[in-house]
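Subject line: Sequence and fold of a protein, written as structure tokens
Body of memo: The sequence and its backbone structure tokens, given next.
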Amino acid sequence: MSPAEPPAHPGAFRRALGSELRLVYGRRRNQVLLVVLGAGAMLLGIAVKASSPHTGQGPQFLDRVAGNGMFLVFGALVVMLPVFLPLVVAVVAGDSLSGEASSGTLRYLLTVPVGRTRLLVMKWLAALLFATSAVFTIAIVALITGAVLFPFGRVTLLSGSTVSLADGLLRSAGIAGYVAISLVGLVTIGLAFSTLTEVPVAAMALTLGFVIVAAVLDTVPQVAWLHPYLLDEHWLDFGELLRAAPRAGPLLAGIWVQVSYTVVAGAVAWARFGSADITV
């Protein structure tokens, strides 16, 4: 049975979350991850510029970058989403609790009057905010790079209609937001794995391995019935936001998948962490 939660102290959770965010964003490793993601988006734009006017090949949206630099945002997210962003999530979420257990600071954290459940929520929020920061780092750097290297103005949507620059920027923000939502399930899975081991590398490997297994299963036609329920099945459905009349179905399906994984993995994390005997 999990120990009773201590009474909530006014402001204790907010202060503890602020401290956790300073810890997460202050780690040199995490700062390097953000720099690498931004540099990757910039190098992608330079590579497209160097290869212009040869278009029509490569990842989705990159063939449109030469005509409008805003498409570099979408192309960069397509390139980064399958591997690089999951790697960032695996490192941050997988280390969230197992890192504390490994270094011997977890027991000290539990003396702070926020309780185990609130501590778990705090760790989840910090990892989720960092994952969101990673997505918007890519989007912002790609947007600036696209504006500098390519024509930048009204956006021709996938459906053929043209919208204003302001509308295009709003859609870019919406796409980055959808990608961030698409990582919520993985953040929670990483947190769940982090409660199962005191070895951070193991939690990180399990989290990234989960994505790899889902990607492999997505290519196997014999399990096509499983595809709609895979974690990464709807990750690239943000292309709907580049249509004149986006279909809500695929976007809502993607959000529902993330909610489902979050509920299940969150329950596992809560059950494990709430009853774990913290000895270090």
About this structure: The mean pLDDT is 87.
